[in-house]
Amino acid sequence: MDVRDKLAILADAAKYDASCASSGAKSTRAGSQIGSTEGMGICHSYTPDGRCISLLKILLTNYCIYDCQYCVNRVSSDTPRARFTVEEVVSLTMEFYKRNYVEGLFLSSGIIQNSDYTMEQLIAVAKTLRTDQHYGGYIHLKTIPNASQSLIEEAGKWADRLSVNIELPTEGDLYKLAPEKKKPQIVSAMHGIREKIDETKHEQASGFKPPSFAPAGQSTQMIVGATETPDLEVLKTASELYTGQKLRRVYYSAYSPIPHADARLPGQSPPLIREHRLYQADWLMRFYGFSANEIVAEKDHNLSLEIDPKLAWALANRHFFPVDVNRASQEELLRIPGIGVRNVQRIVSLRRHRPLRTADLRKLRVAWNRAKVFVLTADHNPGVADLDKLNLGKQVAPKSRQLMLFDAASSALTGEV
Amino acid sequence: MTFFLHVETFTQWRQEARALLVRGVAPSEVHFSSGADQPSLFDAAAPEMPAKSNEVAPTVPSAFLEMAKHVACHRDANRWELLYRTLWRLTHGQRHLLEMSTDEDVFALNQMKKAVTRDVHKMKAFVRFRKVVASSDLQDTQTQPEALTNYIAWHRPDHRIVSLAAPFFARRFKAMNWTILTPDESVSWDQLELKYGPGVPVSEAPDADSLEDLWKTYYASIFNPARVKVAMMKREMPVRHWATLPETDLIPDLLQQASTRVSEMIAKNEGFAETAAHYMPTDGSLDSLRSAARHCRACDLHQCATQMVFGEGTPSARIVIVGEQPGDREDIEGRPFVGPAGQLLDEALQTLRIDRNEVYITNVVKHFKFTERGKQRLHKKPNSREIFACRPWLEAEIAAIRPDTILCLGATPASALFGRDFRVTQRRGEVIATDWCPRTIATWHPAAILRMPNPDRRAQKHQQFIADLALTLDQ
To answer: What SUPFAM superfamilies does the record point to (chain B) (predicted)?
Structure first.
C-alpha cells in the first residue's frame, strides 16, 4: 500500500475528531528551522462541511484492540486498515508544512499491541520532527488511554498540546458504548497532564527554565447525541473539566453516522444545531461568567434549538432586565443578549467619555433586534411592559430558520452571542 | 491654502504628517495623493510649507501607530487624509479619541484596519507554495540541492499587504528559499533577508507541484459528508481565493457525492441491536435458561452451527469453568469440552481429584463459529459483537449458580470477564475479584497447550494449567 492509499484511510479515520485549533502555544521553540507557533490559529483551508483544515489530522494506524461502539476503528468494524511508519508521518508533515498547506500535525492512533507501545510510536513522530527536522510548528498528540505517566511526560516535551478524549459525557454513557473506558481513568490521565503543566509553569515563575511541557495546554472531545444524555449533563462535565483539569478547550462533536456503524447507534445525525448550541453555551461558561445550571433553562435539561442559550437565559430571567448600558457592571453587560465580549469592552471604554445612545449600539453592530428590549440607553427605555409580554420570545427570536443558521455560523467563530 | 502631498508608504506618510503637525497645518489644508490616484493639477503649484518651528511633534498613543501601519496598506484613496485628520484630533484635545469607537473617523479607520488584518490573515492561510528545483547544467555534486530549491507562491490579496505579511513567512520558513508573487508587489527570502520587488502576473507563477495530489487526497478524506455547510465554507474561504488553492477543484464532486455517501453509511449498519437479553426466560433456573437459549437468534452464528451448546454441570457447583466457544466435536454432540481440549481438561480434573460432575463447564459463546475448508470445519474466533450478544447467557448462568470461583480458559473469556486490557500471558494464575465473582482466575486454554510445538514449553504450560486449576480448590 503506498502513502497515498494510507493517507486516504488514515485521514478518513481521523475526520470524526472535532479538534482543530492550533493556537495557544505563544512562542516558537528555540532553534527551529522550519515552522513557528505564534499564538493565533490559522485555518489553511475549509472543506464543504464548513470545518477548517488547520492541521494534518491523521491516525498513525486505525488498527485498534478496543471495541468502542461509536468508533469506526473499533476492532469489530469491517473498515479497511492501514498503518503509517514514523518516517512517513514525519515526511508528510514536513512536506505539507513547507507548502503552507497546514499549520501543524494532529496525531492520534488506534491502540495496537498495548497502550504504552502505541504511545511510544506517537512520541517517536513528535521527537523526530523536533530533533531531526528542527520543526517548530504545532504538534497535537492524542494521548493513549492507560499509557504510563512517564510516556505522557515525554510526549509533553515534544508536543504543543496533549489531549485525552473523554468521549462521552457520563459514566453511564461510557459503560454503554465504550465499556473498556472508565471515567476515573480518563480524568486521572488529564489530572496527570495538568499537574505537569502546573509544575512547569511554577518553575518558570520561579525563574528556572524547565523544558517546555505542552505549552498549548490540553483539550478533550465529547461525542454528543450518541446517547440520550441531555445537554445539562454534557455542560456539567465540561465545566468540571474546565475548572478541575484546567482544560483549554472541550470539543463537542455531534455524533455523525459512521460507515460500518454498530446498530445500537442512532442511524441519523442529531441536528448540527445542537452541537452549535453547546459551543455557544461553552462560550457562555468560559467568557461570560455563566454556570452550566443557569444556561440550561428547558425542562428536559436540553438547550433550546430555536434560540441561542443567552437569549433563552434572558427570557427566563426577565427580572434582571433592562440593563442600563451606561451604568451596569461589565458582568451585567455580558448578560445582555446580542452583545458580545468585544462590544462590552467597547461600551465600557466609550461610556467613560459620554453617555451611550441607541445609535452608538447600532453602530457597534450589536444584534439590536435581540438586544433592544433588554437594554436601557440614554435615549431608549424599553419599559417593563415590553419585558412582561408573553410572546417576547417570538419577537426577539431570529426571524426565519435560514437566517438562524447563518447567524449561528458567524457566532460559532466569534463566540459572540 | 492647500498642500498637495504625494505619499506611497506608511513611512513617507509618517514623515510628512509629522512635519505638517509641527507646522500646525490643519487637516482641511492638506490633500494627499498616492500612485494610483490621478496626479493633481495643483501639484506643481504647491505652496511652500510654513517655516519649521522648533516644536517637536507631540507623542501619540502607540495604538494609533499600530492602526496607521495597517490602514496604510488599505486601497482606499482617502486613507492618508483620514489618518491625518485623526492624528490632528488626537493631538488637539481629543487624546482618547480612539476609545470612541462610534466616532465617524475612528469607525472608518477600524473598518479599514479590520479589512487589512483579515486580508493579512487570509494571506498567511491561503498562500500555497510550489516547490521549484532549478535545473542545473552542471552535474556538480558539490551543489546542494536545497540551494537550488525555491518555494514559489502566487497570491492575490485585496490590499497591499505584502510587507505586513512577509516577516511572518520569514519567521516560519526560516531555512527555506521562498518567493511570494502578487499582482502589485513581490517578496523573496533567501534565508538571510527579505527582498521586495515589483508585481508579477499570474502567468509567471509555477503551475504545479507533485505533492498537490497527496494534498488533495487528504482534503477529500478529511471531509465528512454527513455535515455539509457550504455557506460557512464560503464565508471563511472566499471564492475569489479559490483559483490559487489546488484543493478547491474537488469541491463540486465532493458535494455532489455527499448525500449518497451518507445514505450508504447509514444503510451499512453492522451488527445487531439485539442481544440474548431478548430471549431471556422469566425464570432464571439453569434448565429454563438452557431451553430458552435453543431459540436464541441474537447473532448470526445459529445459522451455521448444528446446535446451541449450553453449559453443563450441577446448579450447586462451587467452580465455574468458562471456555471460548464450542468446537467441531462439541457442536455435533451438543456438550461443552468433549473434544481433544476437553480430554486434557478431564485429565487435569482427575489429577486434582475434582469430579467433573461437581463443576459447571460452559463457554462465552454458545454456538460454533467456523470456516469450511474442504471437509474440515476450522474454528474461527468469535468477534466482540458475537461475544457481546451472547454475554447475557453467561451472566445468567453465573447468577443462577453463584460460584465461589470462576476459571477462565484462554484470552476470550478472560477479556470478557476482566476487560479487554487483560493479558493472560502476564496475569494468569492471579486470583482477582471481579463484578462476576470474588475469585476470578485466568489460565491457558487447553487447546493452546495442545498446539504448543515445543515439548518443553508444552510441559511447562501444562504444569501451570494444573497449578491454576488447583487454585480453584482453595476457598
So the answer is: Uracil-DNA glycosylase-like (SSF52141)
